Structures are given as structure tokens and as C-alpha cells.
Amino acid sequence: MDAIKAPRGTYDVLGDESWKWDRVIGVTRGAAADFGFKEVMLPVFEHTELFSRGIGDATDVVEKEMYTFTDKGGRSVTLRPELTASIVRSYLEHDMRRRSQPVKLWGWGPMFRYERPQSGRYRQFVQIDFETLGASSPLADVEMIDLSMEIYRRLGLSNLQVLLNSVGCPSCRPAYRSTLKKHFESSIHELCDTCLGRLERNPLRILDCKQPACRALTDIAPSVLDSLCDECRVHFGEVTRGLERLGASVKLDNRLVRGLDYYTKTAYEILSGELGAQNAVCGGGRYDNLAENIGGPHVPGVGFASGVERIIITMEAQGAYMGEDAGPDVCIVSSSPDRALEAASLAHELRAAGLSADMDFMGRSMKTQMKSASQNGAKFVCIIGEDEAASGTVSVKNMSNGEQESVERTSAAENIKNKLLWR
Question: Which of 46, 225, 281, 407 has the greatest number of beta carbons closer than 10 A?
Fold first, then answer.
């Protein structure tokens, strides 16, 4: 019988690398607190209608990539492909409009999209997601971009660039769509099959195509910035001036439309030169009509999402500090299996005192136990031999310098904690 393996497009985060994820989430959580964001934990699956109405029926995500199934109650549910729609749904369901506005929320966890696996892109992937709801001010957009950059700065990333655009609003976008459609219709035979389908439903999505022939047409396509209404033009101008005031490095890109239909006005990505063609480590923007699309009142919003896998790939490529695989404070080494119960009792006492402790369960020799403690990164070893057992002491060995001393068992925890303070 063949062994069962993880499904294609998924992967295991093993114990000897999970600390990298702890580093990213820990830094993110700290930045979230500094910017006034509260963490939320939301369902992994939602009613399919939330995404079909919220993200847009004509998007690749809804058309091709969602994991959708019928549950035992006959309801269509979908594993979440992103978190923004879920956070807006939660905001509406719990009537957060009664709270002081804006409401700043963030979350993280697994998302699911059926797409071709490649470097930094999986069918189950982890995203961090930030949303500011209830504020229409362009300064909320500026703060969101600043927050995403601040997270990367704290993680030690460099060589990052902000791509910025405006995708207009329902007032000015129809005219631009019409202009764009005429442009592509003049060279319709050069469009790929996917973009031919987009031409009628949403020609803006053609701007996001990576096929060479389509990109050549988008290079000479009319700019959305020339079609903005006064409100969108003023908003975009204030966003760009706000970023300039912060000293951010920004490049305007009139092809940047993002892959979800709910965006209005600001759209942005942060790129890294270390990821090749798939070089976006962050994407986001404003979505003032999303709440209405899913049945709520008008609630302006702005946010971004960032894949943890891509952050880690970028950190590794740039040699950024990843944290460390922390070993236990103490490993307990006993002279024989007869001392195992004593070792377990000591481990219990050390843990109760706030230390991380481990012990041998394999009945191995003291030499092998010491070698294992070193391999596992233990900072100290408590040795229980025949002499120690007889005298009520333990030998505490500092694994960094080899120093060893005998201490009363009852004071072992205090002794080790004091030594850890001076490491």
C-alpha cells in the first residue's frame, strides 16, 4: 500500500522551521498593536455568496480558484480564498458601526486557492491581513501602506518598492472601461483566450495579464489616471503627497488593478527583487463599496494582505534575521532508567518554576543523553547520577561554557533562572 502524502500545493511546516513563522507573526502582532489594530479570528469557511458577491463573479479567484462544496445541510460553502470579505462580513454582522470609527482589525491564518503551485504560491497558504473600516480619508490609505512597509522594515527586509495606482470609482470607472475596451478591440486578434473573455465582462483585468502579447497592448493602453473624476483625482493626489511626506519610495503604475473587483481608488503592491516574476510580497488598496456588495450599508474601507510564505522566502534571500530555533532551558540527564521517575519529577518542578525542560524517554546512556541535549540546543543540563540521588543534589552544567556545579535539588530552578539572566 502506497504511503499517503500531502496534497499537491500544500506543505508541512516542521518543528525545526516553525520558529521562522513565529518570528513573522510576532513582529506583525507588535506592529499591529503599535498602529492600533485589534486581532480577530474568523471562520475558515464562509457561505459561497460572500465571495461571489464580494470579490466579483468575473475574477479568476471566483471563476477558477475557489474550493467550494455543498455541506450536509445542502448549503454552498467555500474555504476562504482571502480574508477581507470575511472581516467586512464580521464588521457588519456584529454592528461595529456603533463603535468609535474607524475600526482597525487584523487577522492571519490559512487561505485556499486552487491554482498552479510555484515558488511562494500554494493552494493552501497563510496570509496576514489588515483592514481599516469606516474611514474615507486618504490618510487612512497612507497609514495602511506605511504599516505594511513598517512590518517589512521590522523584519529586516530591504530592496522593496511601492507600486501605486488609482482604479477610480463607480462614477468614473465606466467611462474608462469603455475607453479601454475600444483600445483592446482594435487589436482583438492579439489578445490571449483568457483576455478575450475578460474584454466584455471586465476589461480592466486585461491590464493584469502576464502574457507577452497582452502586456505589449497594455503598455500603450490609456491610463486610468487620465479618466479619474475630481473626487478620485483629489484622493489620489493626497495619497501620493502623504507618502512623499513619509519619505516612501513610490512608483506610479497605471497597469496595477489588483485581482479582485471590490477595489476603488487606491491600489498598491509592494515588490521585492528577490522573488523573480512573482515578486509581490504585499497587495492592497481601498474598497469603499464592498460592504454594500454583500448586503450592508456604505462602509469605506482600506486594507492589505501579505503571504507569510513569500515574506519568509524574501527574508531568506536577503539574509534577514529569522529569529532562532530555541532549545529548552534545561535537559535532564539521568544515570539509569531507574532514575527516570526522579527525572520526570524534576522536569515537573522546573516547568512549574517557569523553565522549559525536557528529559530522555529512550533509556539511553548518559553520554548519548548529553549528545542529544547538545543537538537540541539545551542551555543547561541537570544531571541526576547515583551520588546526586543519594545527596539530594543535581549537577548543573552550562552548555555554553562547560562549567558545572553541584546544587541542592530544591534550589535547582532558582540557580538556573539566575544563570539565564546573565547569559
Answer: 281
Domain count, the chain: 2
Both 306 and 406 in a single domain?
A: no
CB neighbour class for 205 (10 Å; exposed up to 12, middle 13-18, buried from 19): buried
Based on the fold, state whether residues 308 and 392 are members of the same structural domain: no
| pTM flag (> 0.70) | yes
Following DSSP, what letter does each residue of 174-214 receive, concatenated?
Answer: HHHHHHHHHHHHTTGGGS-HHHHHHHHH-GGGGGG---HHH
- Taking the C-alpha atoms of residue 223 and residue 206, their distance in angstroms, rounded to an integer, is 13
Give pLDDT tens digits for 280-330: 789 999 999 999 999 999 999 999 999 999 999 889 988 888 887 788 999
Beta strands 250-252 and 160-166, pairing class:
parallel
Q: Where is the domain boundary, 292, 318, 344?
A: 318
300 and 410 both lie in a single domain: no
- C-alpha distances in Å from residue 345, one per residue of 244, 280, 365, 395: 61, 51, 19, 16
Q: 231: burial class by Cβ within 10 Å (0-12, 13-18, 19+)? A: middle
- Beta-carbon neighbour count of residue 228 at 10 Å? 24
Range of the domain at 109: 18-172+228-318
Q: By the 8 A CB rule, do 268 and 256 touch? A: yes
Q: Which helix (H) or strand (E) holds 37?
A: none
The bridge status of strand 45-47 relative to strand 330-334 is unpaired
Using alpha carbons only, give the angle 70, 71, 74 rounded to the nearest 5 degrees. 70
Q: What is the pLDDT of residues 155-192, one digit of tens each?
A: 998 877 899 999 999 899 888 888 888 888 888 888 89
CA-to-CA distance for 212 and 191, rounded, in angstroms? 10
Residues 382, 261 share a domain? no
Reduced to 3 states (helix: H, G, I; strand: E, B; else coil), residue 362 is coil
User: What residue type is assigned to position 95 of the chain?
Assistant: D
Please give the C-alpha separations between residue 86 and each of 73, 80, 91, 166, 398, in angstroms, as whole numbers: 21, 8, 9, 24, 50
Q: Which three cell numbers stand for residue 197?
A: 473573455
Give the Cα separation of 151 and 158 in Å (integer).
Answer: 11
What does the DSSP 8-state code read for residue 171? T
3-state DSSP assignment of residue 323:
coil
